[in-house]
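Look over both lines:
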Amino acid sequence: MNKKDLVQYFIVNKDLPMSKGKTAAQVAHAATLSTLTMMSKDSPFQERQPDFIEWVQTGMKKIVLKGKTEELMKLEREGYFSIHDSGLTEIKEGSLTVVALPPMEKSEAKERVGHLTLLKN
């Protein structure tokens, strides 16, 4: 059996004026929410739990991409983990800052987010 190339993707909303620190905090929120949800016995992603366990055991590979608000909203409508800001610091309350996919095969994720580019700064 071939080893799976499991990756978790985070898509950051580049339409928002977030500092590097704010962006890091929002991605951390998404990582925490997705992990807690994946570990829950009533997770909406129960069929993905074996991949989640393997992903944890093999280093928890993550990739952070950038996208526009519309792209994040589409992923949110598909049921992925979304983070909306509380509006206490840099951006407006309710702003969609990050969407995280559950850990999945890189080839499967490319179908959803392959058109997006890496967040580099």
About this structure: Residues 20-39 form the longest helix (20 residues). Residues 6-114 form a domain with the Bit1 fold (CATH 3.40.1490.10). The chain has a mean pLDDT of 93. The chain has four helices and six strands.
